[in-house]
Design brief:
Blueprint: H1 3-27, H2 33-39, H3 44-52, H4 54-68, H5 74-93, H6 100-127, H7 133-162, H8 164-182, H9 195-200, H10 208-243, H11 250-267, H12 276-293, H13 300-328, H14 334-363, H15 365-393
Helix pairs in contact: 1-6, 1-7, 1-8, 2-3, 4-6, 4-14, 5-6, 5-8, 6-14, 7-8, 7-11, 7-13, 10-13, 10-14, 10-15, 11-13, 12-13, 12-15, 14-15
Length: about 400
């Protein structure tokens, strides 16, 4: 890579960090949407449908953006996606009652969000140098975490001072800033057109089974994170009732967010090293053991310790396994692969609790989290085994 190309990739990467921060700051307003649904007189059932309404859009938008990025510059796809999210925020700002229109706008929001999310990772896959994929994805994920933190704080500030319409209009303003940032992106597709370069790099086009395995694992990984965050208030409440302490969820949430951020800032580079496979297996086991620890925690201190362990494992696995995929996939498939990863992760984040929730309700948290840990271990080891076989298949023969 020439000095000029390296500098251009560096500038693109910094723009992607800013774009990720702004876009996810805008989306973070939806973390407070439960209050809005209750304010409109909605029930828990209607809240569940509204929350899950994003899934059809995500399932369509993320893979479609990954496929279209082969022919259309990601810049234009991002601009369309941000515009759809902004439109949904404007519509929600004028919503005054529970209706099916809310589901439509939530679906449109998911479609736009999926496009933006997939294209950010697709562009990052091309901008990050070989050998530093996990570290670079870790920084993108860190920007996302910071965006969520800043966005939800900004949204709550607006909500408390001016109400729900102002909260959604504030999110729309952040979409405008994200749109302006996206205008600075290159107007050419990041797809590599050189088949010779692809072959020389020993990259592969994934088979259908490999796609299914990757999607399955990222569905479980996203579902693990989403399930923990959504059940956290209930876990804290149960511990508080047993110990007589205050049911304040902030310390546990803060432990997760801060640990994930520090892990991606400091430790993500470990997933690019020579012991990559051992590092990923080790952190996977940490996350699995922490998952088993959630229902066993008997005090707030123990919940915080479990939160730190869980966040440590999850914090490295997401960028590490993303980097692993991007290192072994042909450059022309990276945008498409990012689309499938985003669809699977967000699908699990919002959808896995629909399966584990009834298990927790009828059989208890211990059974639900044990099932989740088993799913983590099975899909993770199968996925890493597949990645190892692909790497061995295309490793140069030393006798050769």
């Amino acid at each position: 890579m020439s000095a000029t190309t390296h500098a251009a990739s560096g500038r693109l990467f910094w723009r992607l960090l800013l774009l990720a921060l702004l876009h996810f700051a805008a989306i973070a307003a939806m973390l407070l949407s439960a209050r809005w649904i209750v304010f409109l007189g909605g029930s828990k059932n209607e809240l569940g449908w509204f929350s899950a309404g994003i899934l059809p859009g995500l399932v369509l938008g993320a893979p479609l953006a990954g496929r279209l990025a082969d022919r259309i510059a990601e810049k234009y796809l991002i601009l369309v996606g941000v515009s759809l999210v902004a439109s949904s925020m404007l519509a929600l700002a004028h919503g005054s009652s529970i209706s099916y229109w809310l589901l439509l706008w939530r679906c449109i929001q998911g479609f736009g969000h999926g496009m933006v999310f997939a294209c950010i990772f697709g562009l990052a896959a091309h901008a990050i140098p070989e050998g530093k994929k996990a570290q670079g994805i870790g920084y993108i994920a860190l920007a996302i975490q910071l965006g969520n933190l800043c966005g939800v704080s900004f949204a709550e500030w607006l909500l408390l001072r001016a109400g729900f319409p102002a909260m959604y209009l504030g999110a729309m303003l952040l979409c405008g800033l994200a749109f302006a940032c996206a205008l600075t992106l290159p107007a050419t597709s990041s797809r590599s057109s050189s088949r010779k370069d692809i072959a020389a790099a020993h990259h592969v086009v994934p088979a259908k089974l490999q796609v299914v395995l990757a999607v399955s694992f990222f569905f479980i990984l996203g579902g693990s994170y989403g399930t923990v965050l959504q059940l956290m208030p209930l876990l804290v409440q149960d511990v508080a009732l047993k110990t007589g302490s205050s049911a304040i969820v902030t310390p546990v949430m803060a432990a997760i967010f801060i640990t994930v951020a520090l892990c991606r800032l400091v430790l993500a580079r470990l997933a690019d090293g020579r012991h990559q496979r051992l590092v990923l297996i080790g952190f996977m086991l940490i996350m699995t053991l922490a998952t088993l620890g959630w229902p066993l925690a008997a005090s707030m201190t123990q919940l915080v310790l479990v939160a730190i362990a869980f966040a440590l494992g999850y914090g490295l696995l997401f960028p590490g396994l993303n980097g692993l995929i991007l290192s072994h996939v042909a450059p022309e498939w990276r945008s498409r692969a990012s689309g499938w990863v985003v669809m699977a992760f967000d699908g699990g984040f919002f959808g896995l609790l629909l399966l584990l929730g009834p298990v927790a309700e009828h059989s208890g948290y211990l059974v639900a989290f044990a099932l989740l840990a088993l799913l983590q271990l099975l899909t993770g080891l199968i996925f890493l085994g597949m990645a190892k076989s692909v790497a061995n298949k295309f490793r140069p023969d030393p006798s050769g």
